[in-house]
Amino acid sequence: MSSTLTIHHLRKSQSERVVWLCEELGIPYNLECHDRVPPAMLAPESIRRLHWSGTAPVIQDGDITLAESGAIFEYILAKYGNGKLVLGPTHPKYADYLLWLHQANGTYMPAVTSVMLGRMKGDDDESPTQKVMQNRANANLQAMEKQLGTSAYLAGDELTAADCMSVFGLTTFRLFIPSDLTEYPNIVAWLQRVGQREAYKRAMQKGEPGLEPMLAAVPQPLAQ
């Protein structure tokens, strides 16, 4: 089925979320994949030409070009979702849904990205800034672990867009900042549940062919 919706996916990046979201919704889309540019492994010029942000994900839908994961999620869910993967204001888990939909990019990813960049420039993990950011990331993981001890997914026993937004930071992002999730068994069990979803498998196969999803507590290192 043809579609006007095109997802521009930067390999090994958060734009995998958008591919997964569309697979879960069962909507048609075109997928354009872009490779990172060594040695800094930044987005290529092909992404930068699409949107002033110069980052992925980017979608195009007719005359519309849109960036930012959260904005893209809202756009796709509102225009194409038909009420799937969202919880409304009257739902008892609505507040949980909103929190976890925004937590990944609002708090967790900025914290772990700051730690990663600090390590890249040689900052000591015991430096004040590194400790603050690592503690912030740990607090998020502890809260997520507690949440997933009460339900199969972040906003109840059914998958929502909040899960689609949150998985990347605990899987593919660990290519850039390895981390051990052994002390978070509920998170690991959640990742395993996600890994069994056919829509997730399709999304990863399309967007990251050859990359084994990093769903284990201690994922295997990539082959050299």
Overall description:
This protein has 8 helices and 4 strands, in the order E-H-E-H-E-E-H-H-H-H-H-H. With 224 residues, the chain is an alpha+beta fold. It folds into 2 domains: 5-80, Glutaredoxin; 94-197, Glutathione S-transferase Yfyf (Class Pi), Chain A, domain 2, CATH 1.20.1050. It has a 4-stranded mixed β-sheet, covered by helices on one side. A hairpin with a 2-residue loop joins strand 3 and strand 4. The chain is globular. The mean pLDDT is 94.
Task: Show the helix and strand layout.
Elements: E1 5-10, H1 16-25, E2 30-34, H2 45-48, E3 58-61, E4 64-67, H3 69-80, H4 94-120, H5 128-147, H6 161-166, H7 185-195, H8 198-207
Parallel strand pairs: 1-2
Antiparallel strand pairs: 1-3, 3-4
Pfam families: GST_C, GST_N_2
Domain GST C-terminal: 90-213
Domain GST N-terminal: 2-84
